[in-house]
């Protein structure tokens, strides 16, 4: 590909050696090997290390065929309760072409001490300093796309 003046602002590969805080331990962020399939597949991660000056953002696909039993999914899976010094947008989108508002599964998201069970595509705004999570994928019937971003230069707790 020909290098252009603003190519430096485009990210097409997953960041190598992503260092996650302890409350996200156990997530597999390594690029997929040929033929490998996972329930959760990180596609893109952006932050100040990937593109200098960029803020944190990540994109993830969740697939139903790799979904473990509900008992296993809820046993420490997903981010646990935490805060950030920056605001964050957390979103999940379903892939039902006939009804894009249908999440195609069930996501459990906690904001402070309130549990929210989501079955529709959604975006949640989390103000800086607000305790949020745990976040659990309770059910995945169809692929679900997850996108999150926060205007901090790195993902910190």
Kindly describe this structure.
The chain has 157 residues and is mostly beta strands. The protein has one domain: Sandwich (Jelly Rolls). It is 3% helix and 37% strand. The protein has 1 helix and 8 strands, in the order ββαββββββ. The strands form 2 sheets. Strands 1-2-8-3-6 form a 5-stranded antiparallel beta sheet, with no helix packed on it. A 3-stranded antiparallel beta sheet has the order 5-4-7, with no helix packed on it. The longest helix is centred in the middle third of the chain and has 4 residues.
Overall body shape: globular
Mean pLDDT: 85
Portion in beta strands: 35-45%
Rounded Rg? 16 Å
At the first level of CATH, what is the class? Mainly Beta
Task: Measure the end-to-end span.
Answer: 37 Å
CATH architecture: Sandwich
**Strand/helix succession:** EEHEEEEEE
User: What strand line-up does the widest sheet have?
Assistant: 1-2-8-3-6
Q: Strand pairing plus helix content: what structural class?
A: mainly beta
Task: State the helical fraction.
Answer: under 10%
Q: Remind me, CATH topology?
A: Jelly Rolls
Question: Mind summarizing the main beta sheet?
Answer: 5 strands, antiparallel
Oligomer: single chain
Low-confidence stretches: 72-76
CATH homology superfamily name:
Jelly Rolls
């Amino acid at each position: 590909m020909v290098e252009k003046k603003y190519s430096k602002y485009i990210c097409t590969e997953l960041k190598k050696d992503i260092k996650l805080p302890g409350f996200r331990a156990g997530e597999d962020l390594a690029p997929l090997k040929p033929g490998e399939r996972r329930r959760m597949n990180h596609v893109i991660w952006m932050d100040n290390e990937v593109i200098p000056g960029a803020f944190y953002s990540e994109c993830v696909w969740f697939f139903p065929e790799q979904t473990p039993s509900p008992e296993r999914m809820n046993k420490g899976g997903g981010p646990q309760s935490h805060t950030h010094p920056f605001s964050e947008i957390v979103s999940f989108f379903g892939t039902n072409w006939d009804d894009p508002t249908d999440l195609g599964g069930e996501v459990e998201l906690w904001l402070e001490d309130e549990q929210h069970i989501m079955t529709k595509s959604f975006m949640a705004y989390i103000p800086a300093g607000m305790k949020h999570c745990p976040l659990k994928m309770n059910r995945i019937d169809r692929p679900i796309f997850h996108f999150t971003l926060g205007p901090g230069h790195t993902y910190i707790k």
